[in-house]
Amino acid sequence: MPSFLFISLLLSFIHFSFSLPSIGVTYSTTTTTASPPPDKISATISTLKIPNVRLPDADPSLIKAFAFTNTSLFLSIPNPLLPAVAANRSLALRWLYRHVLPFYPRSKITLISVGNAVLDSIAEQDFTPYLLPAMRNLHLALHELGIKKIPVSTTFSFFSTITTAFPPSSAEFQQPAGDLIIKPLLQFLEETNSSFLINLYPYNLYRLNSEIPVGFALFQDYPFNFRDDLVTGVRYFNLFDMMADSVLTAMAVMGYESVPVIVAETGWPSGGGEAGEVEANEAYAEMYLKGLVRHLKSGVGTPLKKDGVAEVYVYELMDHEGGNNDNNKVKGRKWGILTENMTRKFNVEISSGVKNYGLMGIFLFLIAIFYAFP
Description:
- The protein is built from 12 helices and 10 strands.
- By secondary structure, the chain is of the alpha/beta class.
- Strand 2 (about 50-55), helix 3 (about 60-65) and strand 3 form a beta-alpha-beta unit.
- Helix 5 crosses helix 6 and helix 6 (about 130-145) runs parallel beside helix 7.
């Protein structure tokens, strides 16, 4: 009879070969209008069967509302708090005592981002000197509390971080931030088994480059709807993969290709924005979301990495009156998958659902069962 090790290897192969990226959604509150009660947000997300939620605001009452729901929570520490958290570990502990310790593990907190798109805010206030010290203090504070399963990272914006998406093989991290900030941060992520977080918007890149066909940005299967990387010979069929592989290439250039990548924000606006944004409409937004979910559930990964990205968070759960509440985005755009009244706008199933193991996976599973129970 085959050994237990052989059976374990078979089962591990099945899981590894057919694991799919996890798909979640961002929920951000707004200061201009009253937000729905936390219990209603939690119940809505559970009804939609969305397994992961990113909470940029990390309100304690909202974290508490997800207790015992089996929804994984991705929390963030706002940029203005970085200097204090970097200067004093006791302040990192204070943040954890307010946002994590009262709720964990009943609320499934699985990731904390220390800051969001800090490179975008340099013109107003430079938080980059505090970034890595704040991450280290929060990591050590978690371990002091005996919490070792919540990784710490930070979130970057594609446009202020990566030099180019055309072709992906030429992409690098923008300097001097690449060597001074991102490289030591990648070392920290590798040492602590964390992930590299990136905001990735094909819509914004499409708006900046008139040569990109809209179908290429929307995952549409049109004839000749592809772009070739002439350096590597790799063919791309959608803009999302091209941008993701640009990030993976930049990480590989620095020697950290094994660090997982999480897309912390992505989406397509269904309306609003500046004059002339005709592509910001509900039809295109639904096409993007359906194409994205279909692509992620296919399990094909990206051309440069068969496992692709580890997680993807759609921006965002619901529209806000007067547009979004994020200073890093154009005011007035509607990014929500729900309206301001929390009704569905699109017929898109974001839930990761059941993994499709395929015939080979089922065959290997049956072999393992057969040998396990002679």
